[in-house]
Write a structure and sequence with these properties.
Chain A: One of its GO terms (cellular component) is plasma membrane. The complex is a heterodimer of chains A (1002) and B (342). Chain A has 4 domains: 142 residues, Calcium-transporting ATPase, cytoplasmic transduction domain A (Distorted Sandwich); 328 residues, Calcium-transporting ATPase, transmembrane domain; 216 residues, Rossmann fold; 225 residues, Calcium-transporting ATPase, cytoplasmic domain N (3-Layer(aba) Sandwich), CATH 3.40.1110.10. In chain A, 45% of the residues lie in helices and 19% in strands. A 9-stranded mixed β-sheet of chain A has the order 14-33-32-31-15-27-30-29-28, sandwiched between helices. In chain A, a hairpin with a 7-residue loop joins β22 and β23. The radius of gyration of chain A is 36 Å and the shape is elongated. Chain B folds into 2 domains: 63 residues; 219 residues, no CATH class. In chain B, 28% of the residues lie in helices and 15% in strands. Chain B has a 5-stranded antiparallel β-sheet. Classes of the chains: A alpha+beta (1002), B alpha+beta (342). Chains A and B meet through α9, β16, β19, α13 and α31 of A and α1, α2, β3, α4 and α7 of B.
């Protein structure tokens, strides 16, 4: 599947879509049907629609259909308006992007057109600080070296500048030629991989030659990037409109459902079944009563021969009467409070990171309750627990350890002396540090040099080298690098870069010394990726020891090596490398294979050790969260000893004798299996002891375990509160999350880098640290925070409050609906089981969507315990984790409460308003007032703290009930004309209300 | 050039944020956004609970006593007459036969002095005025507006006559209008039962039209209840208006009239009843009620008893808690009682 793009050739341009971007979900015409269809996909909405339709049948409806249609339409209108507004904003921003003016080449001349009219094959011109309108293959820039810089923040969130180079075949074309070039680009069909672009370009004569030239992602300018530090650049449009890499990666993420939502759904289902049961029982009872009793009631005048459907009439009436059991307002209320929880997180000053100016952000507004129910936290190490602020601390060069005394190699006199003495080993070591990387030096006008690096380690190494007087001064595209060393200028030509991948765990660079013409391979990487490549006979024991020593100090080690290449070897290899690089299939794998052919018999120069300090407050945060019953798993790509060291430092594990660390390791499958068995056995035996057990496993063993011994490992996962998984890949991280999820644990994954994205998306809650590795993780996450320590507040304060509040709100919503419904049912027993509604339509509707919905919304301000108390007694979170506030038994409590309250209100009403007072409208209003009084007191009783807003909502609503009903009582046509005035004048009314609420206490 | 260690150069955003406080992303402080609004946190301490119960008890017992006293002040005579007024076994046949003499006389002795006004009620038991088919069989528009006489769709099966003329007032409620009549004698002297103003004023003024006269009423094959004088507008048909205020319960009393004369203790009250209304087919009962009124209305001990019960319960609970509080006192907010500390 390939796409052929003919450059600047209008005859082919209509094969692909134009550059009109459309992010909108709806059009003006399909909005109504499509939106309605989407809304009716929810079960609740279907249910309410069915009820509303049934109510149109006047024979069975107990109340005015408006009492259901009104709220239903309001709820639908609210959702639809929100959707329409969002979509309109998307439309406006699309329109702006589409109508932006861009320069393209048409018939050999530059023309100003709207961005939406760009076609595949057009040459597009962009100036500095302009946004790239579609995916382009770079063909020319203003810079003589053929490079340009782009900011890709909108695409991947990384804020460093990236260098893009023009393909070799286009180098040297002047602006005039760029207007005329013709050629063909062979590229894959559109996909969403923003890190890969495996394509070829071939220019047609007379331009240069017709050699095929490979293209990579480094030759592209992707849509939504910005051109920086470059006067202009031009390129051929290859993907346009919604087919760009950005357009393809746009997608609606799967909505996450919280444990509470699932529970509420379950309870709703149970209530629905209960309702059906009530309908069947009362419906049949009603039919029986009708046939035995009601026919004797001459004043009811039942016909003797009735149509067949009469048997359905009474059950259906009860169905409608009971339909309010499922509160129509619950979804709107929940949406409202959930968005408030999210806002409170966004607004919270205490989880705002001063240092990086990052406020916390809840991207997913629907899952705050889950924060309070987290059972497992899976955390990344680097950048999450640590600062990811790499500082070069120590090194081991040719068997000498530097920086041991002071803990800072840069201040080690010995090393400084060695540099001053031009010690060859040290110089080589520093040269590798300065050159073997992808860092871009940027010279400011004042002459100072700053480095733009994608990897913090590389940044630390280059900076350290420059402090030791080996300064990387400039780097021009892929070609020349200049190093200043003791006032000498050394020019190198960078021939090839053998890129870092997480599989290879190393990177190399091939350079040639411009003076001597010698060619060198410089490599750096993880010790286990470099040390085995040492030439035969090199003593690597000192290096191995150094690596161990540094790891125990919690330092990150990198191993540096080099080798001189002969010209023949290089040319031979270079051909293979070029071939692999232009492969369209399996390019990455082929390149890795070719790289391996060059990376061998290295001369190991030394070990660098970089410190990555723990973030502030990490140990305390972990301590407190562990006290609150949350288990921690650390998943890191780092090596075992470093990981364990960091784990000890941050309280994740305790040292002997308090804790014990169990290792799962082995070189073969059998060894791994035996090791796992042993660990599992130990876990089982000691699980009753108060010893803190943790297991350590590495990526290699994990791979075997996850494929072969998943069940045993699952058992281990259940038994073990703490685990350290090192050397794990991004997909293994995600697998571990999945495994814990499969054991029914609520998981929270926290990380900061691109390698954590999969784990973050997989977990119930993904938290991203907006860290130094860019914003990728933060963007994929449900919550993004600036520092790990904010997790404490996020979980203990926001999570817990959200859980408590939703638990109350959801159960209360059912309670108040059930209450009114039970009163209706009780009334049916004294009204001939015929399905008479005690309450009039207006009251019912107002009760559901107004009187009982507004006050309870202020539960978003309710705080049962102060934030301080919660953080001092984190064990309180156990209540939320175990779901103690919303589960079938608490719900049964609320159910019983509503039944009890309904009986009380009903009995008091019919006894106090018996005999000459038993007038329908009055009695109905007395029962309704009783319910409203109860509501106000139940809400007051259930809330723990009262701000003026709560007072206002509860008692304002209470007053509003009287004001509204008094107003309605002045309308002569209303059924309840004068009723409220009459009642308010009766002492017995107030006495009845008072007794109703007192019963509540018992 | 010495760039030094990784510095803030990598963080253009941070630089901006620090140099220019206006561009900071720091959330704006307000008590609301920080969830720090001043709040009162009432705690249900033992003292407050005991005090609350004691207070409720102290409040409720007097109210209960007052209500009970008021209810006991009310003098009420209830005389069931449905059975005694039909001399034959086939009660339904008797009542449905239009030619039988349905006059019936009952005599009661007044136990206590009754101060005027004395309300005369009829009491019906087992009559479902709240039955869905019945309660909705009426047209309020028709009762109010002259032009709405044809709006009888809600009134089935008593909407139109056989020849499609609208019945005014239509519907089962009006059709089944109560038609027993009472003539009261106190110690043999005919006493006027005032039937003026027995209906709600608001109903007379606003719900029933002054220019609407009954038509086609009780002209069908089946006669339900009372007939109406077609020369009197609906707003003056007070019996109808009272009846149309449907009762919410199957046992109800409706006002028949008032005796505006005091009746002394041991006076004999003789009532001549025209026993027309059929409660026999559905096994209901009818009674005549003479009652005075107090500030809580008619005789109803329920409220008084409820208040006394709850008041007593609250007082004893307050006592019980007080004893418990004295004997087995716990430190307030003792963390050792928390489940994870035990």
């Amino acid at each position: 599947m390939k796409r052929f793009v003919y450059i600047n050739d209008e005859s082919y341009q209509n094969d692909y879509c134009d550059n009109q971007i459309s992010n909108t979900k709806y059009t003006l015409w399909n909005f109504l049907p499509k939106n309605l269809w989407e809304q009716f996909r929810r079960f609740m909405n279907q249910y309410f629609l069915l009820i509303a339709c049934l109510q149109l049948w006047s024979l069975i409806t107990p109340v005015n259909p408006a009492s259901t249609w009104g709220p239903l339409i309001v709820i639908f209108a609210v959702s639809a308006t929100k959707e329409a507004w969002d979509d309109y904003n998307r439309y406006i921003s699309d329109k702006q992007a589409n109508e932006k003016k861009v320069w393209i080449v048409k018939n050999g001349a530059r023309k100003h057109i709207q961005a939406q009219d760009i076609r595949v094959g057009n040459i597009v011109w962009i100036r500095e600080n302009e946004e790239v309108p579609c995916d382009l293959v770079l063909t020319g820039t203003s810079e003589p070296q053929g490079i340009c810089h782009v900011e890709t923040a909108a695409l991947d969130g990384e804020i460093d500048l990236k260098t893009r180079v023009i393909p070799t075949t286009c180098i040297g074309l002047d602006s005039e030629q760029l207007h005329k070039i013709k050629g063909v680009i062979e590229c894959p069909i559109p996909d969403k991989d923003i890190r890969r672009f495996d394509a070829n370009i071939r220019l047609f004569p007379p331009f240069i030659d017709n050699d095929i030239c490979p293209l990579t992602i480094n030759n592209t300018l992707l849509q939504s990037c910005y051109l920086r530090n470059t006067e202009w650049a031009c390129g051929v449009a290859v993907y346009t409109g919604n087919e760009t890499k950005l357009g393809m990666s746009r997608g609606v993420p799967e909505p996450k459902l919280t444990a509470m939502d699932a529970m509420i759904d379950k309870l709703t289902g149970a209530i629905f079944l209960f309702q059906l049961a009530v309908v069947v029982v009362l419906g049949s009872a009603g039919n029986v009563w009708k046939d035995t009793e009601a026919r004797k009631q001459w004043y009811v005048k039942y016909d003797d021969d009735e149509p067949w459907y009469q048997i359905l009439v009474i059950p259906l009436r009860f169905e409608l009467l009971c339909s309010i059991m499922i509160p129509i307002s619950i979804k709107v209320s929940l949406d409202f409070v959930k968005s408030m929880y999210a806002k409170f997180i966004d607004w919270d000053e205490e989880i705002y990171d001063q240092e990086t100016d990052t406020p916390a952000h809840a991207a997913n507004t629907a899952i705050s309750e889950d924060l309070g129910q987290v059972e497992y936290i899976l955390t990344d190490k680097t950048g999450t627990l640590t600062e990811n602020k790499m500082i070069f601390r120590r090194c081991c060069i040719a068997g000498t350890l530097y920086g041991n005394e002071s803990g800072d190699a840069l201040k080690d006199i010995e090393l400084l002396n060695a540099v001053a003495d031009n010690s060859p080993h040290v110089i080589k070591f520093l040269t590798v540090m300065a050159l073997c990387n992808t860092v871009i030096p940027i010279k400011s006008p004042s002459g100072t040099i700053s480095y733009k690096a994608q990897s913090q380690d590389e940044d630390a190494l280059v900076n350290a080298a420059s402090n030791l007087h080996v300064v990387l001064v400039s780097k021009n595209g892929n070609n020349a690098a200049e190093i200043h060393f003791n006032r000498r200028v050394i020019q190198y030509e960078i021939l090839d870069i053998l890129e870092f991948t997480s599989d290879r765990k190393r990177m190399s660079i091939v350079i040639s010394d411009s003076q001597s013409g010698k060619i060198f391979l410089l490599s750096k990487g993880a010790d286990e990726a470099i040390l085995p490549l040492a030439y035969c006979g090199q003593q690597i024991k000192t290096f191995v020891d150094a690596v161990d020593k540094y790891a125990q100090l919690g330092l990150r080690t990198l191993c540096l090596g080099w080798r001189e290449l002969s010209l023949e070897e290089y040319l031979e290899w270079s051909r293979l490398f070029k071939e692999a690089n232009s492969a369209l299939v399996d390019r990455e794998w082929k390149v890795a294979e070719v790289c391996q052919k060059l990376e061998h018999t290295l001369d190991i120069l030394g070990i660098s050790a970089i410190e990555d300090r723990l973030q502030d407050g990490v140990p305390e945060t972990i301590e407190i969260l562990r006290q609150s019953g949350i288990n921690f798993w650390m998943l890191t790509g780092d090596k075992q000893s470093t990981a364990i060291q960091i784990a000890l430092l941050c309280n994740l594990i305790s040292s002997e004798p308090k804790g014990q660390l169990l290792y799962i390791n082995g070189k073969t499958e059998d060894e791994v299996a035996r090791s796992l068995e042993r660990v599992l056995l130990t876990m089982r035996i000691t699980s009753s002891e108060p010893k803190e057990l943790a297991f350590v496993v590495d990526g290699w063993a994990l791979e075997i375990i996850l494929t072969r011994y998943k069940e045993a490992f699952t058992e281990l996962a259940v038994l073990s509160k703490t685990a350290i998984c090192c050397r794990v890949t991004p997909s293994q991280k995600a697998q571990l999350v999945k495994l814990l999820k499969s054991c029914d644990y609520r998981t929270l994954a926290i990380g900061d880098g691109g390698n954590d994205v999969r784990m973050i998306q997989q977990a119930h809650i993904g938290v991203g640290i907006s860290g130094r590795e860019g914003l990728q993780a933060a963007r994929a996450a449900d919550y993004s925070i600036g520092k790990f320590r904010f997790l404490k507040r996020l979980i203990l304060v926001h999570g817990r409050y959200s859980y408590n509040r939703t638990a109350f709100l959801s159960q209360y919503s059912f309670y108040k609906s059930l209450l009114i419904c039970f009163i209706q049912i009780l009334f049916s027993f004294v009204s001939g089981i015929a399905g008479t509604s005690l309450f009039n339509s207006v009251s019912l509707m107002a009760y559901n969507v107004f009187y009982t919905s507004i006050p309870v919304l202020t539960t978003v301000l309710d705080k049962d315990l102060s934030e301080k108390t919660v953080t001092q007694n984190p064990e309180i979170l156990l209540y939320c984790q175990a779901g103690r506030l919303l589960n079938p038994s608490t719900f049964a409590g609320w159910f019983g409460r509503s039944l009890y309250h309904a009986i009380v209100v009903f009995l008091i009403t019919i006894h106090a308003y018996a005999n000459e007072k038993s007038e329908m409208e009055e009695l109905s209003m007395v029962a309704l007032s009783g319910s409203i009084w109860l509501q106000a007191f139940v809400v007051t009783l259930e809330m723990s703290s009262f701000t003026f807003l709560q007072f206002l909502a509860i008692w304002g609503n209470f007053a509003a009930f009287y004001v509204i009903n008094l107003c309605i009582s002045t309308i002569p046509t209303a059924g309840m004309y004068t009723i409220m005035f009459r009642l308010c004048r009766q002492p017995s009314y107030w006495i009845t209300m008072l007794v109703s609420i007192t019963i509540m206490f018992f | 050039g010495d760039p030094g260690l990784p510095s803030s150069a990598m963080y253009p955003l941070e630089m901006e944020g620090n140099s220019n406080p206006k561009t900071t992303n720091k959330p704006k402080y307000s008590k609301f956004t920080q969830q720090e609004l001043p709040a009162c946190k009432p705690l249900l301490t033992p003292e407050i609970v005991i005090a609350a119960f004691a207070l409720i008890g102290a409040l409720f017992v007097p109210i209960g006593l007052a209500s009970l006293h008021a209810s006991r002040q009310v003098v009420e005579l209830v005389h069931r007459y449905d059975a005694s007024c039909v001399p034959v076994d086939d009660k339904v046949g008797f009542i449905q036969n239009s030619r039988t003499d349905k006059t019936c006389t009952v005599t009661m002795t007044v136990p206590k002095y009754m101060k005027s006004p004395i309300h005369v009620y009829y009491l019906i038991d087992g009559f479902y005025q709240n039955h869905r088919r019945y309660v909705r069989s009426r047209s309020d528009k028709q009762l109010r507006y002259k032009s709405a006489a044809h709006l009888t769709s809600d009134c089935v099966p008593e909407g139109d006559t056989a020849d499609h003329a609208p019945i005014v007032p239509c519907g089962l409620v009006a059709w089944s209008l109560f038609n027993d009549t009472y003539t009261v004698r106190v110690n043999g002297v005919v006493t006027q039962v005032n039937k003026k103003d027995i209906a709600w004023k608001s109903d007379k003024n606003n719900k029933f039209g002054k220019n609407i006269y009954p038509s086609n009423f009780q002209k069908g094959r089946l006669i339900g209840g009372a007939t109406l004088n077609e020369s009197i507008p609906l707003s003056e048909q007070e019996d109808l208006i009272v009846w149309m205020r449907t009762a919410a319960l199957p046992t109800f009393r409706k006002l028949y009239g008032r005796i505006e004369k005091d009746i002394n203790a041991n006076d004999n009250v003789t009532v001549v009843i025209q026993n027309n209304y059929n409660t026999y087919s559905f096994g209901g009962s009818k009674a005549l009620v003479l009652s005075t009124a107090s500030w809580i209305g008619g005789k109803n001990n329920f409220i008084g008893i409820a208040y006394l019960t709850i008041g007593g319960l609250c007082l004893s609970l307050a006592m019980g808690f007080l004893v418990l509080y004295m004997v087995k006192r716990r430190n307030f907010g003792d963390p050792s009682n928390l489940s994870w500390n035990r």
